[in-house]
């Protein structure tokens, strides 16, 4: 019989000795540096500053962007090593990442479409937290339907002038710069065309930032009003008019491997089990705790399989939509179970799980609603007819 | 056997709905969340004028009750308008203090709305201890009227629910109060309030998805959206008869079943409402948030789902 | 304050003394007559005969069709008394009703649209089980989309000739007669028009009945092949061409109050609780058992409220669609919980719950799929835009 | 670390898939359900020729194993084709009998497919006792080879699963067999089989809703239909890495997690498949039924969901 007369050589979940060494190094650094008491909430001015300082501390020992090239502050860690780092990072109870918009959305775009000049200029201060990035995708009339954007970029001498309004700009209340899509050619024949991908300064003349409080009142995002904001040509990513294609590849990353690492959910599931035990292991939550542990493990192994396919030369396509649905529902289930375990105390806003709960509520909505993801799974993975919803 | 609200009960609902719609209740809620109780107290007086707090108080003490069905009718409207304050707790107090001589002393003020009461949950916090004029603490030696200042306010996921620890230091009112009966009434009021919260969330979401367009069509024309809202509607409409059935019987297991079902329906509706509104629903400044966060908080107030289920299995329906 | 200064007079769940007397009479009759061992499955030839005999036994003491007028074998029981009867019937563990297609679908149609001659001829033998009716709605290309029917009724001397094919005709393997819609005017401008509601004999010349086994192999329905089957004019219900309107009113009944009485689910939920206790009250099923008890009670009270509205002069409209979704999901949940309580024995086909489980699987599909019901709830109760699915 | 099937493993799947597709497996299943084992045995021999039963048997006893990953690969295909017979039970037997001197006596016949084995479940029935040539009974004093005639066949909700009581009367093979290890392998095989069942149900349903029209359009163009199938796809694709991860580690908790997850995904897919097929899916004569009923039966075979969860919570993942 073909291929079974030998030990399985490729289905292998053992990390290489070098990767295990890397894991050990990360673990010992984190053990020495992770703050013993949690930082104040990232969505407050004080907490934002504390998280920015934490990024600098990470960066000082080159732990802030491990997957980047060394010349930009990283460790050239491959996909698997990045997964290992994330497992250790979250298991150590380390703080949330204030630089995530930049690191997981903008940086991959710069690596793929930016110039070397842009990378050298933008990436190192991103790695240290010196410049924190906000995203500026959505507009009041363009949420899930990004192609409906109307904010303009108008050609000007040596650059562009932005006008219009962005909203749901996460981190923008306290961040330094932002990136997004602007309509540079309103006469383009199709609405996906004529969009340009730009970076701009949140403190530039003409920018007004209006913080928006999320459910718990914290200014987790903001509206941006842009009134003739000048952006030099050097801050355009890729060719003008190519913004949609460039952003879609970034959106793929957002949904895909790099937005929500399995390490987060493994750590949350382990904390949930601890909470369950601490509350006397109540029977009513037994199944949900077990299912959370299993789902976190499934997500980890699914991600390892996807990473292995990438290493094997494949590109990840619409399967990222399954990821998005899976992790967002898992995150919500984890936090709802935790609040239920807390009983009447579950409503207290200062509890260890409440901020995560509020955050998890947004999961099914952002980065493409789960409805859109299910449409993609049905149409592109299963081949069901398109277009009717 | 006729399981229908009568004209007077429907009129009570209509009266409250009209009054609360005209009263800019959301502004009162937002003030309340910041600890400014002025508008909330004014609202409270007007609710008392309609007779709501008298529904748990017998006529001889200035009330019109006990009328649990009318109470449920009224509390659906209070929930529908996200009225702030220790509403169910004031009902609890009226039941706890229903025996003479306490009744003479406390019930008229509660019925008239001049007193606002809160009750400390077992081992937990009391709602709006900073606003209540009567702060009751069930303690080992009896029911106490707390005269010490309430503890600092702890925020709930619902900013309009301001939780404080209460000290039993003060006056021992009675060694033995009707805790079980009070819990039943409190749960009934909470169930009604939750149903109202769910109905408001459904209404607002239906309105939103009819006008909000994406991909060139109303969001409400997508089948996935329709089906989530149909499920919310069904869950709420099946909670409604449980609520009124429980009000009729006042059996603890029936009330627990209604509390569980109404709260679950309201919470599921909140999840749907949040999801279908997208990012705007997730903001504190948009009024939807007033109901969203209350749905979660009511779910665990005065009886978690598991406590309610246990009663159903023990006592039967 | 308006209306609250007196005891609640109308929200009243107490049955009248007369209704309680009726309940007691039903209970004592059932206690004396319900077979001690369950009858063989209704979906077998032997079981069908046994159930037919049971209908005769019920009818002998006028318990088979309590809501009908006395002259047709009933007791003129109103809606509330019918609900009381059903509660007692199922609580007594009495057999399934072989005559249900006729009693709950055809009879209401005859009361609303039939002639007195038809009622006098058709109803009494239906009440005794002497004539058992099958329904003949669906066709191979018209399942949920009933308006797509193509079986023909062609005008003939003194009646009509049927040709075409019906399918999923429940009970038809062993029943005597059938009723359904046939296209009598293929040139009608819209496909809902030109349909006629007819009754026909399953043993008439030209009828071929091919039983179809359901999942467990039992012939619970059949295909009907109709080759020039003569139907006299006296077996047309209502005017020719009016079949759609007539059938829709029957379909409303099917989904609404009369298809699945609360008594069934109250009895099933009580049996489930007994099973749970008998298995040692395992914690893992606690919530599901409690939820089943609560849902059965909710369904009962929802039905009492709906019946009260009918007694108050209202007509039930699209709210019946909520009923259909609710009971079908409850029925499935009840049976799945029971099988789970049985553990590995849950797969045994001869268990007390397995036939009910197989039956419950069909609930979300028949009498209008639950998707169609949700569309109706969304469009007709909530006012959401029609037409896109 | 590379978590990918290799070319040989993929070829094993392809070989089995091609062979079983060509073999009119549904006819063999239907015969088997009636107690006619002729075609089923022929199929069994061909599966043995591909080496499937040797994957749990070491080379010295005529096998090629142990190769749990390849076993999982193969059992996914057996499930995908609804192959009848005591498949997981034959794997169980190979593990139970893996020590000398039993190994010499029994393993070559199992690896070669000349023996078909069944094992009585604790306190329960044995699958296909009427077809198996080796009937093993774990009894208080040890593992017995039952030589008494099996009890009468009890039908399962899956007609192809013919259950019989087994008497331990016969030969005591060993006082102590590796039951835990055998259970782990059996669960792994069952998990793989369930995943295959789920994948087949999904494939067939996708095909059906693409061609079936209602209201003038393909049923598969309705968003509610799409989303149910997307959920089924997602559930199955997340069960897959758990299965292969469990095959690599063979840790009992990981195998239990894979068993639970694959079986739940398959059962949810069965419910979706049945629902989206409408009435035709509900008929025994339509082939979909071969997988539908198996999804339910596998869910409780060799470990209920609760037993699996308990192991996850006790041993950790």
Task: Explain what the structure shows.
The complex is a heterotetramer, with two copies of chain A (about 400 residues) and two copies of chain B (about 325 residues). Chain A has about 400 residues and is α+β, with helices and mostly antiparallel strands. Chain A is built from eleven helices and nine strands. In chain A, a hairpin with a 2-residue loop joins strand 3 and strand 4. Residues about 1-10 of chain A have low confidence and may be disordered. Chain B is of the alpha+beta class. Chain B folds into two domains: about 5-175, Acyl-CoA dehydrogenase/oxidase, N-terminal domain (Butyryl-Coa Dehydrogenase, subunit A, domain 1), CATH 1.10.540; about 180-315, Butyryl-CoA Dehydrogenase, subunit A, domain 3. Chain B has eleven helices and nine strands. In chain B, the strands form three sheets. A four-stranded mixed β-sheet of chain B has the order 1-3-4-7. A three-stranded antiparallel β-sheet of chain B has the order 2-6-5, with no helix packed on it. The mean pLDDT of chain B is about 95. Chains in contact: A-B, A-C, A-D, B-C, B-D, C-D. At the A-D interface, strand 1, helix 8, helix 9 and helix 11 of A face strand 1, helix 1, helix 7, strand 10 and helix 8 of D. Strand 1 of chain A pairs antiparallel with strand 1 (about 1-5) of chain D.
Mean pLDDT of chain B: 95
Terminal-residue CA separation of chain B: 18 Å
C-alpha Rg of chain A, in Å?
22 Å
Low-confidence stretches of chain A: 1-8
Order of helices and strands of chain B: HHHHHHEEEEEEEHEEHHHH
Oligomer: heterotetramer
What's the order of the H and E elements of chain A? EHHHHHEEEEEEEEHHHHHH
Structural class of chain B: alpha+beta
If helices are DSSP runs of H or I spanning 4 or more residues, what is the number of helices of chain B?
11
Largest interface: A-D, 58 and 61 residues
Range of strand content of chain A = 5-15%
- Globally, the shape of chain B reads globular
* Rg over C-alpha atoms of chain B, rounded to the nearest angstrom: 19 Å
Whole-number tally of structural domains of chain B: 2
């Amino acid at each position: 019989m073909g291929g079974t007369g030998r030990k399985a050589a490729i289905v292998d979940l053992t990390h290489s000795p070098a990767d295990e060494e890397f894991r050990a190094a990360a673990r010992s650094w984190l053990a020495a540096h992770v703050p013993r008491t949690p930082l104040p909430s990232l969505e407050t001015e004080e907490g934002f500053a504390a998280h920015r300082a934490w990024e600098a501390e990470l960066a000082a020992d080159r732990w802030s962007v491990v997957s980047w090239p060394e010349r930009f502050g990283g460790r050239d860690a491959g996909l698997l090593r990045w997964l290992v780092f994330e497992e250790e990072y979250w298991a150590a109870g380390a703080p949330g990442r204030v630089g995530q918009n930049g690191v997981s959305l903008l940086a991959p775009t710069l690596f793929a479409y930016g110039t070397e000049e842009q990378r050298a200029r933008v990436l190192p201060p991103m790695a240290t937290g010196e410049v924190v990035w906000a995203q500026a995708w959505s507009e009041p009339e363009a949420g899930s339907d990004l192609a409906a954007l109307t904010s303009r970029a108008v050609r000007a001498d040596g650059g562009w002038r932005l006008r219009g309004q962005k909203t749901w700009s996460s981190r923008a209340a306290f961040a330094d710069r932002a990136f997004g899509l602007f309509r540079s050619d309103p006469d383009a024949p199709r609405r996906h065309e004529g969009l340009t991908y730009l970076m701009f300064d949140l403190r530039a003349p003409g920018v007004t930032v209006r913080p928006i409080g999320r459910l718990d009142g914290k200014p987790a995002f903001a509206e941006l009003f842009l009134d003739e904001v000048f952006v030099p040509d050097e801050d355009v990513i890729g060719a003008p008019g190519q913004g949609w294609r460039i952003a879609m590849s970034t959106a793929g990353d957002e949904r895909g491997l790099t937005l929500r690492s399995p390490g987060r959910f493994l750590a949350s599931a382990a904390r949930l089990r601890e909470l369950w035990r601490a509350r006397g292991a109540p029977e009513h939550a037994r199944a949900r705790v077990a299912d959370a542990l299993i789902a976190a493990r499934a997500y980890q192994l699914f991600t390892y399989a996807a990473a292995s396919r990438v290493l094997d030369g494949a590109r990840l396509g619409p399967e990222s939509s399954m990821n998005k649905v899976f992790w967002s529902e898992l995150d919500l289930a984890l936090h709802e179970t935790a609040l239920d375990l807390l009983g009447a105390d579950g409503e207290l806003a200062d509890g260890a799980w409440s901020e995560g709960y509020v955050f998890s509520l947004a999961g099914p909505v952002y980065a493409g609603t789960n409805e859109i993801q299910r449409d993609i799974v049905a149409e592109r993975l299963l081949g069901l007819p398109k277009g009717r919803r | 056997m006729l399981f229908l609200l009568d004209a007077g009960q429907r009129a009570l609902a209509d009266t409250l709905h009209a009054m609360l719609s005209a009263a800019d209740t959301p502004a009162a809620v937002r003030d309340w969340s910041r600890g400014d109780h002025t508008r909330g107290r004014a609202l409270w007086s007007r609710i008392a004028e309609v007779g709501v707090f008298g529904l748990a108080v017998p006529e001889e003490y200035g009330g019109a009750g006990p009328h649990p069905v009318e109470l449920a009718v009224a509390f659906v409207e209070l929930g529908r308008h996200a009225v702030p304050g220790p509403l169910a707790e004031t009902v609890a107090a009226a039941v706890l203090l229903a025996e003479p001589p306490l009744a003479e002393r406390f019930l008229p003020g509660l019925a008239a709305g001049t007193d606002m009461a809160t009750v400390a949950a077992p081992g937990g916090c009391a709602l709006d201890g900073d606003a209540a004029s009567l702060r009751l603490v069930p303690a080992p030696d009896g029911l106490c009227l707390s005269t010490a200042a309430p503890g600092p306010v702890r925020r709930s996921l619902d900013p309009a629910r301001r939780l404080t620890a209460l000290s039993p230091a003060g006056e021992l009112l009675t060694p033995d109060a009707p805790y079980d009966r009070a819990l039943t009434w409190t749960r009934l009021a909470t169930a009604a309030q939750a149903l109202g919260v769910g109905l408001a969330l459904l209404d607002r979401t239906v309105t939103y998805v009819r006008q909000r367009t994406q991909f060139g069509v109303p969001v409400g024309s997508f089948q996935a959206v329709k089906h989530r809202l149909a499920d919310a509607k069904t869950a709420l409409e099946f909670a409604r008869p449980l609520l009124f059935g429980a009000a009729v019987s006042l059996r603890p297991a029936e009330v627990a079943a209604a509390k569980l079902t109404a709260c679950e329906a309201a919470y599921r509706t909140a999840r749907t409402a949040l999801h279908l509104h997208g990012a705007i629903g997730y903001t504190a400044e948009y009024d939807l948030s007033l109901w969203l966060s209350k749905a979660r908080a009511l779910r665990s107030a005065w009886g978690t789902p598991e406590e309610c289920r246990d009663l159903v299995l023990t006592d039967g329906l």
